[in-house]
Amino acid sequence: MANVEKTEFNLAGPSGPTGGTPPTDPATARRGTINPHALNTETDIETTLRPRSLAEFIGQPKVRDQLNLVLTGAKNRNVTPDHVLLSGPPGLGKTTMAMIIAYEMGTSLRMTSGPALERTGDLAAMLSNLMEGDVLFIDEIHRMARPAEEMLYMAMEDFRIDVIVGKGPGATSIPLELAPFTLVGATTRSGMLTGPLRDRFGFTAQMEFYDTPDLTQVVSRAAKIIGVGIDPDAAVEIASRSRGTPRIANRLLRRVRDYADVHGTGHIDLQAVRAALIVFDVDAMGLDRLDRAVLTALIKGHGGGPVGVSTLAIAVGEEASTVEEVCEPYLVRAGMITRTGRGRVATAAAWRHLGLEPPEGTIGS
Ligand SMILES: Nc1ncnc2c1ncn2[C@@H]1O[C@H](COP(=O)(O)OP(=O)(O)OP(=O)(O)O)[C@@H](O)[C@H]1O
Ligand SMILES: [Mg+2]
């Protein structure tokens, strides 16, 4: 039980203050004085920036509409909502959405993650502590150990588990009733989920990359919350360089704010965005150092492919899973690489992005 990360958030309450406490005066939100009690760490800021309700959640209109139906239906029938699976690349709002589900239902959220549920006892403890209507959030659910996963099947379906007491021939199994709860699972790799687990979710939401208008709203909203002034064209520029990802948009905003604080008046204009993103190695398309390293390895090291993802990962000195889950989804969506049966292939756009002429026959030329 030692490694179970068990946090409880009470998100109940109809319309609490939204998105944390915005600093009142932009000037006090800026550097200058050091206040040890201020929201200083980046994690604190990330928490402050999380939308709390469905209405506040920007973008993902399809997921929002579908989820709204699921939750409203459950509320009207006075039952706990069906289990929800959220899948999509990092930073698109899966954890945020899990918190919103608990908030909208007026219940508590308990959080854990697949790798923390190594032994069935860890999961049993977690499940037996749930109160009726609670939301149990399991992050990285595809990384759960198999025995725990099998216990979860029964819990999801019948709200019941069998706890094994003792060892060897004397072991007995004791059935344990659970309070009806809603499981929210998050995964960056829905392909790695086993069939039986996937089938037990009543609703699967595929989170998509955000478009620039939606990310512009994310940036403007975050700027307001952290108390920094930003020109509309500067917000669009940050949005368009954020790889379709709100977490990156918020992070770039903070870096640009640093730049504007140090080199300007603290107000963010287009020039500050452009200059700051050069400093932080974010290129015109929003690709970062690792994205470019992958493209370079693929094109300069392997003539554009096809090449396997593990070879690429070794070339850039990263885990294969990082390349596959963090870099690739966006490079594919940006039309820079395609996945084929024999490996990854660079498109003409990728060659041109590196300033090279694509050889004849390159995809997209
Ligand atoms: N729709 C949104 N509107 C505004 N901000 C958002 C939205 N979605 C996400 N964010 C911001 O992006 C940050 C990252 O979101 P979140 O932690 O929910 O992503 P995630 O999908 O769980 O990522 P990971 O797979 O890495 O766990 C949050 O702190 C939040 O501030
Ligand atoms: Mg998360």
Automatic annotation (TrEMBL):
Has 3 domains, the large (RuvB-L) and small ATPase (RuvB-S) domains and the C-terminal head (RuvB-H) domain. The head domain binds DNA, while the ATPase domains jointly bind ATP, ADP or are empty depending on the state of the subunit in the translocation cycle. During a single DNA translocation step the structure of each domain remains the same, but their relative positions change. Belongs to the RuvB family. ATP binds at L49, R50, G91, K94, T95, T96, E157, D158, F159, R200, Y210, R247. Homohexamer. Forms an RuvA(8)-RuvB(12)-Holliday junction (HJ) complex. HJ DNA is sandwiched between 2 RuvA tetramers; dsDNA enters through RuvA and exits via RuvB. An RuvB hexamer assembles on each DNA strand where it exits the tetramer. Each RuvB hexamer is contacted by two RuvA subunits (via domain III) on 2 adjacent RuvB subunits; this complex drives branch migration. In the full resolvosome a probable DNA-RuvA(4)-RuvB(12)-RuvC(2) complex forms which resolves the HJ. The RuvA-RuvB-RuvC complex processes Holliday junction (HJ) DNA during genetic recombination and DNA repair, while the RuvA-RuvB complex plays an important role in the rescue of blocked DNA replication forks via replication fork reversal (RFR). RuvA specifically binds to HJ cruciform DNA, conferring on it an open structure. The RuvB hexamer acts as an ATP-dependent pump, pulling dsDNA into and through the RuvAB complex. RuvB forms 2 homohexamers on either side of HJ DNA bound by 1 or 2 RuvA tetramers; 4 subunits per hexamer contact DNA at a time. DNA binds at R339, R344. One of its GO terms (cellular component) is cytoplasm. PANTHER family: HOLLIDAY JUNCTION BRANCH MIGRATION COMPLEX SUBUNIT RUVB (PTHR42848:SF1), PTHR42848. GO terms for molecular function: ATP binding; ATP hydrolysis activity; four-way junction DNA binding; four-way junction helicase activity. It catalyses: ATP + H2O = ADP + phosphate + H(+). The gene is ruvB. The keyword DNA-binding applies. This is Holliday junction branch migration complex subunit RuvB.
